[in-house]
Amino acid sequence: MIQGSERQRCHACGFIHWRNPGIGAAVVVFNDVGELLMVRRGPHATRSGLWSIPAGFVDYGEDVRDAAARELLEETGLVADIGEVVFVASNFHDPEKLTVGIWFAGSVTGGSLAAGDDADDAGWFALDDLPPLAFTTDESFLRSLGG
Prior knowledge:
Layout: E1 8-9, E2 16-17, E3 22-28, E4 36-41, E5 51-52, E6 55-57, H1 64-76, E7 78-91, E8 99-111, E9 119-125, H2 136-144
Parallel strand pairs: 3-8
Antiparallel strand pairs: 1-2, 3-6, 4-5, 4-9, 7-8
C-alpha cells in the first residue's frame, strides 16, 4: 500500500509504477437550429452501433484542444474552432482503460459532414430525440444542460 492505494513497486530499485488514466477530448457542436452533432460508433469501435459526441484520445505530447479538433475532423469531416471547457468527467465504462474526458464547445468553420475513422455515421439530433448513447458520460453531460 502506497499513499492509500495498491501500487506496483520494484523491490530492487524502489521504482513505483503510477498508473494514470488516459485523457479524452470531445467537441460539442450545435447547428443553427439547436441540434447536437453526434457520431455512430463503427464496427471496430468500443460500443459499436451506439452514438456519442465526437471524441477520442489525446496523444502523448499533443495539446488537448488540438486533439479535440483532430478527433472532430477525423470522425465527422468538420473543422472547428475549439472553445471553452463545458464538462469534465471521469470515465469508468472500461475498467481496463480508465480515462478523464474533457468536453469542449466547438464552432464549425469548415469541412463537410462525413463519418470517418472509428465512426460509421454522423448526424444532427434534437436534444429531445437522441439516438441510443454509447457512454454514460455523454448522458451526464446532456443532463448538465438541463435536458
